[in-house]
Each structure stands twice: as structure tokens, then as C-alpha cells.
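Re: weekly structure request thread

Next one in the queue (723 aa):
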Amino acid sequence: MGFIPFIGLVVFITGLSIYLLLTSKGRFLLKSLVTKIKPQEWRFRYGKINYLRSRFLRTITIAAIILAAVIAGNTVSAQVTPPLASLKSVSVPEPDNLADFVKDKVAAIKLGKTLFWDIQVGSDGLTSCASCHFHAGADNRSKNQISPGLLRINADHTPNPDTVFDVGGAPNYQLRKEDFPFHKLSNPNDPKTVVSDRNDVSSSQGVSNTKFVNVKPGSAEDEVKTEPDPVFNVGGTNVRRVQPRNTPSVINAAFNFRNFWDGRAQRIFNGVNPLGLKDPNASVVKAEQPNQLKFVKVSLNNSSLASQALGPPLNSFETSADGRTFQEIGDKFGRIDNRKSLNGLLQNILSIRGTKLPRVLAQKLTRLRPLGKQVVHPQDSVLGADSRWPKPGLKDRTYEQLVKDAFRPEWWKSNRLIQVDAQGTRTFVNRADNSSQTNEYTLLEYNFSLFFGLAVQLYESTLIANDTPFDRFLEGKTTALTKQQQLGKQLFEGKGLCIGCHVGSELTAASVSNVAKNGRIKRAPFPPNSPEDNGFFNIGVRPVTDDPGLGGNDGLSGNGQGNPLSEARLAQLGKFQALLGENPPILSPPLSPNETVFADGAFKAPGLRNVELTAPYFHNGGQATLEQVIDFYNRGGDFGVLPPLNLSPEEKQQLVAFLKGLTDERVRYEKAPFDHPQLFVPNGHPGNSTSVTNDGTGKATDSLLEIPAVGRYGGSGIRNFLN
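Done, posted below.
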């Protein structure tokens, strides 16, 4: 080799090393390379296909991949990344055609906050959206909060639910600090020193297993029939079921392109369920004239929160008896829906994914006083003027009036009814026929899912935590972060590799702005450049067979099957445009129907503001403290996916300090817009995991925890998980 080529090679290698180690893009590339290679090593160690024969070959492979990527220009850019800006600079995404539905946004926010916190929404008259999102937008309860590995699958993706409680041995267990982390190591820095491993999930209790019979107009409780629960029972008495994934915070969720951990809640809102354009049968009714109705399909973009809002109210784990519909909730606020509901434990779990089409919630609520069982603070930032303090509920308001105040009349005003027969056939009629074989709904009742989703989304879009020390630091206030926190910020952006997933002002790659900039699907920046959904990552929290996450399907067929949740896989199948409403991103090279997609075990990267307040952590709730989270990343995850970070004890504390600098004190002290009505949340059952008291219907009696009403000026502050 001549001298000039040699010097050129030295300069190139030096430049490459500087790029990889001292730039954020280079560090992310290096992290990504190890992330994709290490899972193959893990598989080999457990008897699977041997992709890399030796450590030497792995080193050579990494070097070759880096060289090829750099030469090909896949990751090197001459552009300078602009400095990160405060979240205050980011507009909250909103549907382009919102004005076609909402006539008064302020009134819609009032309706949304009322629906979000009203415990009368639940079949038991005790559960609401807020029941799982009352604490910094998440849930800090610790009794009866364990779910076994119900989402476990076999290697061929067939269901294989685990119904054994490893943590506590049975439901209604009181969690303790020593139960965490669920994957225990004798040395938290060494992933090989496993002491015990449990696939349980720390999540949120919802409702007991019941079958919906009818709404009782004017009553907060539906008429239901208790059915034996083979999993969530103590001594044969049903206890409240627990969701199979940890509850994420709704605060700042408005910035997410898709919602739910697996991205199931679509960006396009169809007015009926979480599935957006994927559901060809989703339609609402519009009044061209008060006596002229027609079925129409609606499509509102930037509305994954509205899509998400329609899942829990009909979910037989979260707030609903099995078989209820949105029209029935609205008439309560019903009548029986005669469609067959899914039977069995597994099908009930799958209803989490939106297999049930909303048809009956409105008939319940229209007969009830809004928030009729809860006190509203007279200084509530949204509802204070309508408070009956110290009496419960809103004064001079009904849900019917709240809907009419918020929405355009063509969606609720008609003198005709929508009749639904036992086969689900829908007909417009002038009057009810009083037949037991049919149900009739007013236009307002029939479209209640449309109102519910949009109103809750507009309320949740006000829950923006953007006044953290971190945000103030980005605005130029250099003392907003302590010296320790500033060192932690440097680690976050550098050695800690955190910005690989937590990018942009929103601190998540799953944001609307990041997806708009970089595409819904993309290729990994290294061979084999496999396609992946933007913002979803497998970081090795659990084996992919414990929970497929993004690798699952939408369950739309009604038998637990359906279309892939992964948009990259939809593109492979040629379904992207038909099911998502736009052409897939153009990838180079073009997407092959046979290449591997990174989806199994991948979950949406959450934003990190207020992370100090939202324990337990990860989709399985398996870590109780930020220190445990940093240990997890430092050792390279628990299941061979991430590169180890080799952080010192001092560096770990700096990272924890920085994460605490992401707390908006308005959230901690529940100041506006995070103030709220009074709430009573089920907090396990009197007794323990071996004994409960039967209430006479086959269900255990409840322990209720009161969350006092708080006005715009806040309260004394919330307590963290297990504190």
C-alpha cells in the first residue's frame, strides 16, 4: 500500500471513529448495529439458528456493516441537526376537518373531561377512563394489580396464554418493593446472573367478569350476569380483572402518531372503534335534513387519541360487561344488543384490540346527571362554573345538552330513529315498533361513539406537560437544570444512547412530527436494512413470545385474527394504501414480500415527561424505580437486545437526576389543566390473595380509594408508586 492511500485510510478510519463515538447519529447507528446482531447471538445460545459463528466474526461483521453504511451514505448527512426546542414550540396535532363535526371546541372539552372522569360510564357504575389514568395520567395502585402472562404466544404466533400468577401466587395480592424488578439478578450490571424470572405484568384492575344483559335507564349500574372467571378469582369468587399491559400516561399522548403500546389505535378516527380505515363496516349516521338520514363513513386525521378512547368503554377487562355497546351507554346515559359476543377468556383478552363494534353506550348516560356520583371542585378549570359543590354532579346539565352544545346538529338532530334487528340489519324508521327483536336509537344515541371519541380527545389534548426544568433549560434558562442534571442530559444524548428512541422535543420517535419527517415505515440504517415501523422498538424487556406487541394483529375478523398491526407488514402484503388511506413510503431498495420485518416484541416508545411520577415502568410494569430502569439499560436489557453502556454509579445517578428534571410540577400538584373531579377507584378487595368476601352475586366486595376533587390551583401533591 502506498503512502498516500495509507494516509487516506488512516484519515477515513479516524473520521469514522469520531463520527461513531462523538455524534448522536453515529452513536445511534452503533447502538442499532449491536441491537440487531445481539438477538441472533441470544437465539443461538438457546438452540436456535446460528447466524454469527464467533465473536471474531461478529466484530468483522460490525466493521463491515459500518463501512458499507458510511460508504453508501445511508447515515451520514451534511446537514446540521437543529438544536432541540422546548415542547412549548410544538403545536398539538388536530384533525384538519374538526369543524365539520365540532361547533364549539370549549364545549367539547367540557364534555370530554366529564366523560373521562365520570364513573357512571362503567358497567359497574364505578369505573371510568380516569380509573386507570388518575395519577400523572397513569396508575399508582398496588393491590390486585397483577396479570399473568395472558398475551403469551407460541413460536408460530398461536395463542398460549399463561394463567399462573408468579408474583404473589394469586389475584388480590398487595405488591411490595421487594417484588421488583420481575427479572431479578444477583448483579444488576450482569444479565447472566439471573436469580428469578417472572412473566407477570403489573397493570391496572378494571371490572369483574360479567355478561351484559341490559342497561337500566336512569341507573349508573348496568343489569349484568356474573360469569365464573377461571383466572381472576380467589376461592371461586370473582375479583376485578387486570389488564395484560401496564397503563401508560395520557399526558402528552396527544403528540403520538398512533396510540396504545402496540399502535393499535389508528391515526385516522372512524367514529366507531380504534381501527380507523381498517374496519370497512365502520359508519355513523348523518342527517341531511332532520327527516333525511344516511349512513356515512367519516375520517379524521391526527386522531389516534379519539381512536384510543373507544377501546376501554366496551372492553370486558377495563370498564364494561361483555357485550355492551356505545348506544347502550348513551341510553343509560339501553337495550340489549343481540349480536353474539365473543366467548372465553382468550376472546375477552382480544376484545382489548377492538374486536367489538360500538353499538349501545349512549342510552345509559342521557338519563343520568353528569358526574352524578362525584363532587366537582368549584374552582375546576373546566367544570367549575357548572359545579353543584358540595353536592355531586353538574347543575342544569345533561349529557344530551352537553353533546348538543359541542357538536354540529347534523350529527344529533333528527325526528327519525335507527332500528337494529337481531341480525344487525339497520333501518331508518319513524317510530319504535316495541318488538323484542329490534332496538331503536335516536341519532344522538347511535352516534354516541363519535361524540365520545372526539370529546375525550379534545380534553386529553389539553393535558400537555411542557413546563419542566428541561423545557425551561431549552428556552435558555441555564440554571433550570442542576449541574448533575446537565451532566445527565449529556449522558442521555451521548453515552446513554437514549436519543435513539426518545427523539425530538416530544422525546419519542413515535410522535406525529417525527413520523411526518421520517416516514411511517423506514429501513434500518444497516444491512440487511430491514423495514420497521417508525417509533416502535424491541429493547429486550421480555422474550417476544411473552407479548408480540406490534407483531400482533388487529383481531378484526372476530376469531382473534386479522391484519398485522405492523404497518411495514401491511406494506409487504400490499394492503397499506387500502387500510391506512395513503401510499406507503418509497423504500430503497423496494420492499420485498419475503424479507424480515422488525415488529415482533416491538412497542411504542413513550415520551418521558413526568416519568418520575409514572412507575411502574415498561409495557410489563416490571421495574419499580428509575434506578432499576437505568440498571436495565446499563446491562444491555434482559433478553440480549441492547449494547451494555458501562455506566459508573455516578453516571447512573446523573441520568436519574436528569429524568427527574422532566417533571412538570403542575402535574405533581394537580394544577390546571391537570385538576379534576372527585374520583373513587377500586383498590383491590378486602382480604388478601387467599380470602375475599363474596358480595352475594359471585363478585368480591370492593375497597374504594377516594381521590379528592382538586381545583385549578392544585392540591398537596401526589404520591409515587409504593410510597
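The CA atoms of residues 376 and 677 lie 5 Å apart. The chain has 19 helices and 19 strands.
Next request, please.
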